[in-house]
């Protein structure tokens, strides 16, 4: 059976880098953010345009325009999530079916809102990528176009990092450099070795 490890972490914590360490070791990864990007270029675009007229340009959802419409507006965000989340869930199910057919022992579900949207119930264990608040803030504010206001709007939507770590089976501290993070990933793979498919049996101190 295929062991499903949910990978999550708040904005700026190093989740994508951690996912790449797993990919480099041949572990299939379903990236929810990448799935959304593809959906915005495809079948989600007309649905989003119908809900938020003017956010699609040349057949593709303009993420900046969309963000301007939904950030800070809880009702608008709920409408968007009602469109996008079911489509992402379909992509995830197809990914898992392929992985199981291929005989994969371990797969990663990479989702920034894994815990906020209770997707962890579909996983055998949860890995949270974490870093101190000052490191997180510095990383996020170094991104092009990011402002303090936008960061706070995103940050307030996400479960507090301490609560995420409390719910995790594994934690990767990404603040100690790439080599240290990669070693932590290797440790997790060793902990999971030989235990695919045994729900909640591969837990290790976070």
The total beta strand count reads 7
Q: How is the quaternary structure best described?
A: single chain
C-alpha geometry: globular
**Low-confidence regions:** 196-206
Q: How much beta, percentage-wise?
A: 5-15%
Distance between the termini: 24 Å
CATH architecture verdict of the largest domain: 3-Layer(aba) Sandwich
Query: SSE order in H/E notation?
Result: EHEHHEEHHEEHHHEH
Q: What summary fits the major beta sheet?
A: 5 strands, parallel
CATH class division of the largest domain: Alpha Beta
Q: Please tally the helical runs, counting DSSP H or I stretches of 4 or more residues.
A: 9
At the fold tier of CATH, the topology name of the largest domain is: Rossmann fold
- Roughly what is the average pLDDT, rounded to an integer? 91
Q: Percentage of helical residues?
A: 40-55%
The tally of domains stands at 2
Spatial ordering of strands, largest sheet: 2-5-1-6-7
Q: Assign the structural class, choosing from mainly alpha, mainly beta, alpha/beta, alpha+beta, or little secondary structure.
A: alpha/beta
The CATH superfamily name of the largest domain is P-loop containing nucleotide triphosphate hydrolases
- Rg over CA atoms: 17 Å
């Amino acid at each position: 059976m295929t062991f499903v490890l949910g990978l999550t972490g708040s904005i700026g914590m190093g989740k994508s880098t951690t996912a790449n360490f797993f990919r480099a070791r041949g572990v299939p990864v379903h990236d929810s953010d990448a799935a959304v990007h593809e959906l915005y270029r495809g079948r989600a675009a007309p649905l989003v345009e119908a809900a938020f007229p003017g956010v699609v340009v040349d057949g593709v959802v303009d993420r900046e325009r969309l963000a301007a419409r939904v950030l800070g507006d809880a009702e608008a965000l709920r409408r968007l999530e009602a469109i996008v989340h079911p489509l992402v869930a379909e992509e995830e199910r197809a990914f898992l079916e392929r992985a199981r057919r291929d005989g994969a022992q371990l797969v990663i579900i990479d989702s920034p809102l894994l815990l906020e949207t209770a997707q962890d119930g579909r996983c055998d264990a949860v890995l949270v990528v974490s870093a101190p608040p000052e490191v997180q803030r510095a990383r996020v504010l170094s991104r092009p176009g990011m402002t303090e206001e936008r960061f706070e709007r995103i940050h307030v939507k996400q479960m507090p990092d301490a609560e995420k770590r409390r719910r995790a089976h594994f934690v990767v501290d990404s603040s100690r450099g790439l080599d240290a993070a990669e070693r932590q990933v290797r440790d997790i793979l060793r902990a999971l070795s030989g235990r695919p498919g045994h729900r909640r049996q591969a837990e290790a101190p976070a």
